[in-house]
Design a protein that fits this description.
Length: 479
């Protein structure tokens, strides 16, 4: 059977960084294909080449058996290829309908209103009909909940009738029920004749949702084949190397532990209290006020009522590209913009850029950041490496309080363990850490104490509560 998409010997460099080194990839008809690898392994770059966002330095791209030169997203869309990017691309001020018109262009298949339920039709038509559930065509995109925004992103990718979907970390911001729904929709899409590439770091999703898998490590393919022949351990070994797999096991700790720190709290108010040397985790169903609370503590959002926060406060925002970094600025410039008054490079009204560059250069190996250097633009880094830059800068502030919002979003298993270790080290040094993650298991494994947020209120979790009890509190309180 002729592959729907075939990449042969693909090579790509960005300056001195080798992103892809002779990578091969094959996507068959009616298939969900998992694409795995560490941050900076080349996964997003490989799909960006297919979508025409970059041009390969070497190698061939074949679509339905024919060699193609894809020089722009317009070329990709004409070949039936749609892409769901790692970060939302809809225009916030436009409505759902207007965003779809924009994505469709002159020759698109999208319309501005929900189609009738499709019993027959193409895979794209059937998936479009399912994705419209709960979407208001006239609603502004910036007012949609996260799950609805992700459905809009997929609708935009399907706007020209695509039967090949490239999805870059589509589940990173979704709650578990939304993840299950999305994976079920992708299965229907594949069963209807479409094909999808799923980039993810979550091995449980790969094991349950894909038909075949390809693993990249430092731009080279280390594994490719049916998922039925693999296990989480074999995939992890292909991603990070067999010798490093043992380092990935999380340390043993109770589901919800208590703290014996008696110091005065560094955060207090609104039912929330964080003390020096502890990690307090927040769990919540999307839209229950956790975002507003985190920003209030971090000082980037309004504070209502009495709230005491000890300065300085460092903030790791959820969206690194719109809140964490300026993509076109260098890493050194992003470091200084986040810490403009740091005495290591602040000289009265002047800035010592050489000092900032030297410090950023030192942070690259310290945090395992793969970049061409401190002067490389932030946009040249993979998403995971961008997140490491944001994390490194937050700790450079030497904070009394560290607010972390989904800090491991888009990170691979190795980098996630690194971030968890750094959070624990920060707490051990006396920092009060406030952590929110959409991944309940992550919060339970890292936090010393856990609270549930529901309808804007903070609800303490009883000491010793297990995962099921915490999940029940989240759902019951939200309802």
């Amino acid at each position: 059977m002729t592959p729907l998409l075939e990449l042969v010997g693909i090579a790509k460099r960005f300056g001195s960084v080798v992103a892809l080194d002779g990578a091969d990839f094959v996507l068959g008809p009616g298939e969900i294909h998992g694409l795995l690898g560490e941050n900076g392994a080349g996964k997003s770059t490989l799909m960006h080449l297919v979508f025409g966002l970059h041009l390969p330095d070497a190698g061939q791209i074949r679509v339905r058996g024919e060699r193609r030169s894809i020089r722009s997203p317009r070329d990709a869309k004409a070949l039936g290829i749609g892409m769901v990017h790692q970060h939302f691309t809809s225009v916030p001020a436009l409505t759902v309908r207007e965003n779809l018109w924009l994505a469709a262009g002159r020759h698109g298949a999208a319309v501005g209103d929900p189609p009738e339920a499709q019993v027959a039709g193409t895979a794209a038509e059937r998936l479009r009909a399912r994705l419209w559930a709960g979407l208001d065509p006239g609603a502004p995109a910036d007012g949609l909940p996260v799950g609805a925004k992700q459905r809009l992103e997929i609708l935009q990718a399907l706007a020209t009738g695509a039967d090949i979907l490239l999805l870059d970390e589509p589940t990173a911001v979704l709650a578990p029920p939304e993840v299950r729904e999305l994976l079920a929709l992708l299965r229907e899409f594949a069963d209807s004749g479409g094909s999808a590439v799923l980039i993810t770091h979550k091995l449980d999703e790969v094991m349950s949702a894909v038909d075949r898998v390809t693993v990249l490590r430092r731009g080279r393919v280390t594994l490719s084949g049916p998922i039925s022949a693999e296990s989480p351990a074999s995939l992890a070994a292909a991603m990070v190397g067999a010798a490093a797999v043992g380092e990935l096991a999380p340390p043993e700790r109770p589901a919800v532990a208590t703290t014996s720190n008696d110091d005065a709290p560094v955060v207090s108010g609104g039912g929330l209290e964080v003390r020096r040397g502890e990690i307090v985790g927040i769990v919540a169903v999307e839209g229950n006020g956790q975002r507003e609370l985190l920003r209030a503590v971090a000082g980037v959002g309004p504070r209502s009522g009495p709230m005491r926060v000890v300065e300085p406060v460092a903030f790791i925002p959820e969206d690194r590209t719109t809140e964490g970094l300026i993509p076109n600025f260098s890493l050194a410039e992003n470091l200084v913009l986040g810490l403009p008054n740091d005495d290591r490079w602040s000289r009265g009204p002047w800035l010592d850029w050489s000092a900032a560059t030297i410090r950023m250069t030192a942070l690259l190996p310290e945090f395992g950041i793969r970049a061409a250097g401190a002067e490389a633009p932030a946009r040249s880094l993979s998403g995971g490496n961008q997140q490491k830059v944001v994390f490194a800068r937050a700790l450079e502030a030497r904070p009394a309080v560290l607010v972390a919002e989904n800090p491991t979003r888009g990170l691979d298993v190795h980098a996630t363990r690194f971030v968890h270790d750094r959070l624990r080290a920060a707490a051990a040094s006396g920092v009060g850490v406030l952590l929110y993650s959409a991944d309940l298991d992550e919060v339970l494994s890292v936090a010393d104490r856990v609270v549930v947020m529901a309808r804007g209120s903070v609800i303490p979790v009883p000491s010793g509560a297990d995962r099921e009890r915490v999940g029940a509190l989240m759902l019951g309180a939200a309802e």
